[in-house]
């Protein structure tokens, strides 16, 4: 039995959670992406796995925006620590003040995974973009437990993760009035294997482990995508070629999940109650609202979304329109590079080989040692 064609599977894991016979397990392929594997000896062909699939049932979960706005967190320190305008932190704070629970992607020992938090002190763990597919772990199961316990729950994730959770709750007939879903405009998710190999590659060259990789650092302003590596000895590298290497991999689209090139969720029809993004169209549409600390674009898609936005007193809002967004992923998915098969053929022979061939990583050999020595002396 096949739930959906392999190149359409987004790996959300909802099928595994719904299976009444535990016939589905999740396994990683050679690219590091997770896929469901069905044990035909256990499967009773009940079809529940297809009913929760966000790709198969996209038409059941979509909403059209009822309001579009820009937003900035009133706390500049939070805004500077966020990828765009700090909206997520304000929504999370609102839910946690009501003794609620918040789920989102965090970097745990440089592995991107979804975690559950119940304290405002931990919001920082979920703040900021992570351009890697997160390990959802037991989050869907935990959300169900929290909702059944009467908790207010905010779940933030990719549109496909939100769709899987939404369908899972519907099929399981779990009351979801207390659930707030926040998705974001997504370029695609990069391979966890590539990110893990990148961290190992950096550790070997820094000669000291990376404590944290920041996918978006505003050290040079919101409009300039700068990555940073924070080493365990306290050194911060935002300048060397190696510190900026992962964004080159991400923007090349060579290491995205195959389903990202077919993504049904790259549309104005949204899954979440709220959709977040960078407000890149601001310079053109509302230049007086632009600043380098970052501004969020918010699509408010449901009445539930309107309520949480209305109550988010830590945010400053201004009206906008869909025409202002400058977000191509609201119109179409990322194009699949024709060189993707060749890239992976090289990659499977070694991370270093792929970086040299596709990202001119030979520059590292010429500049890296001298540059890093200078950085580490600071």
From TrEMBL:
Domain 4Fe-4S ferredoxin-type: 1-29, 34-63
GO molecular function, one term: iron-sulfur cluster binding
Top-level taxonomic group: Bacteria
Keywords: Iron, Iron-sulfur, Metal-binding
Gene3D superfamilies from the UniProt entry: 3.30.70.20
Pfam families reported in the protein's UniProt record: FrhB_FdhB_C
Stored InterPro entries: 4Fe4S_Fe-S-bd, 4Fe4S_Fe_S_CS, FrhB_FdhB_C, Polyferredoxin-like_ET
Name recorded for this polypeptide: 4Fe-4S ferredoxin-type domain-containing protein
Organism: Blautia producta
């Amino acid at each position: 039995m096949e739930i959906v064609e392999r190149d359409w599977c987004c790996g959300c894991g909802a099928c595994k959670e719904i299976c009444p016979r535990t016939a589905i397990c999740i396994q990683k392929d050679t690219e590091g992406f997770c896929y469901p594997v069905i044990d035909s000896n256990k499967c009773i062909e009940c079809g529940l796995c297809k009913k929760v699939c966000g790709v198969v049932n996209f038409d059941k979960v979509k909403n059209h925006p009822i309001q579009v706005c820009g937003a900035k967190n009133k706390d500049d320190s939070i805004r500077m620590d966020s990828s765009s305008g700090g909206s997520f932190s304000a929504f999370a704070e609102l839910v946690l003040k009501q003794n609620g629970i918040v789920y989102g992607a965090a970097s745990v020992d440089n592995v991107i995974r979804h975690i559950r938090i119940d304290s405002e002190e931990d919001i920082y763990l979920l703040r900021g973009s992570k351009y890697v597919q997160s390990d959802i772990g037991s989050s869907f199961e935990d959300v169900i437990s929290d909702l059944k316990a009467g908790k207010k729950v905010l779940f933030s994730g990719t549109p496909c993760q939100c769709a899987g959770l939404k369908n899972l709750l519907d099929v399981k007939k779990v009351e979801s009035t207390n659930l707030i879903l926040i998705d974001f405009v997504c370029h695609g998710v990069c391979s966890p294997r590539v990110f893990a190999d990148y961290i190992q590659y950096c550790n070997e060259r820094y000669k000291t482990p990376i404590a944290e990789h920041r996918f978006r650092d505003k050290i040079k302003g919101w409009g300039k995508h700068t990555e940073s590596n924070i080493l365990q000895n306290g050194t911060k590298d935002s300048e060397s070629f190696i510190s900026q290497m992962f964004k080159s991999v991400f923007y090349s689209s060579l290491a995205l999940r195959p389903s990202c090139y077919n993504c049904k969720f790259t549309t104005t029809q949204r899954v979440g109650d709220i959709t977040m993004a960078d407000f890149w169209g601001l310079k053109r549409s509302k230049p007086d609202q632009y600043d380098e600390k970052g501004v969020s674009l918010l699509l408010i898609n449901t009445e539930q979304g309107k309520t949480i936005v209305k109550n988010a007193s830590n945010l400053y809002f201004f009206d906008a329109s869909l025409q202002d967004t400058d977000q191509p992923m609201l119109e179409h998915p990322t194009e699949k590079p024709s060189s993707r098969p060749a890239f992976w053929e090289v990659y499977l022979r070694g991370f270093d080989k792929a970086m040299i061939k596709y990202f001119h990583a030979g520059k590292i050999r010429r500049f890296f040692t001298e540059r890093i020595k200078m950085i580490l002396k600071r």
